[in-house]
Amino acid sequence: MDLSATNKGSVPLPGRKRKGLRRLSPDLIGNAIDETNAQVTRIGLTFLGTAAFCLLSLLSPDSALLGGSEKINVPLAGPVSFFGFMLLGPTVLIMLRGYLQIYVEHSNRLEQLGRSMLAVRAPTLVPLKNPLIRVFSGLIFYLLLPMTMILFAWKAAVFPAWGSGLLCAAVGIIAGHAVLPLGKVSWRSKALLSVSAAIIAGGVMFGFGPLRRSFDLYHADLSNQWLPNDNLSNADLSYANLSGAKLSDAKLSGAFLLNANLLNADLSNADLSYANLSGAKLSGANLLGAYLTDAKLSYANLNGAVLISAHLNRADLSNAKLNGADLRDAKLNGANLLGAKLIGAKLSYADLSDASLTQANELNEACGDVHTKLPADFTVKLCPAE
User: Fold this and answer.
1) What number does CATH give the domain 214-386?
2) CA quadruple 80, 82, 88, 90: dihedral positive or negative?
């Protein structure tokens, strides 16, 4: 008998096990659906908790972005500085969201297969048709990450390059989330749509320039901190404690420093043009070569401050206390010195031409030299030789 002729047919031999994939049973599919949905729930809750933690941490004051020593215990990462948290937080959230999406897609495929096989399964949170649960799930899946990323970008916008980078990431995430509900579209098409939307949104965003906001440091305690070369332009530092702070070469133009404590602060060569320092305490401060053009210093306490070569053109120093201040070679032309106190102030080589002065300034108690430029009809006694 020709066995080859028998084996040519498709009839399997008795007692021989069929090789290949094991036949899927409804019970097996049901168990897989339940396990996957349980994993979706666990990852979803982890993602929700991490996002909530990030949102609460972003309410921290801006002083934490200036190199503070405070630490934040980031989930899945451990304690990090606030600066590190601003980089690590978005990374952890994006990873969790991607991991969650993988399991959601797998759950959807198993659900379709289970319906075709009438699989019996235990009830879980994910497949319930309650409208409130569906709305809540939609908020988590489609709004939570984009909203959190936008807040990260806004928090980091005190550093324009950093804030713009996070905003670009937020734009990309929003574009990706916008195409997620398109279930019948292939992943390749979704990726193409996401990239196209991100490029268009990025172009529009950069058309308006980098994302930028000013520091909010109202009543912040920055005493003795090292902040040289920092950009604090237009920052709100009203009532802030900056005593002993190192702010040499810092950019503070247009900053609000009303009633700020700057006792013994180092502000040498700092740019304080157009800053509002009304009522600020600057006794003993080092303002050597500082730029205070058009700054507001009315009622400020500058007793004993070092203002050598400082630029105070058109500054408002009305009723300011400048007793014992060192104003040698300072530029004070056009400055308002009405009611200012200059007892013991050193004005050698200082330029006070066109400055507003009255006899109430007690200018006769200050000293200068033949190079001191004064308004007409004003004189100053010579400073003793050092």
Assistant:
1) 2.160.20.80
2) positive
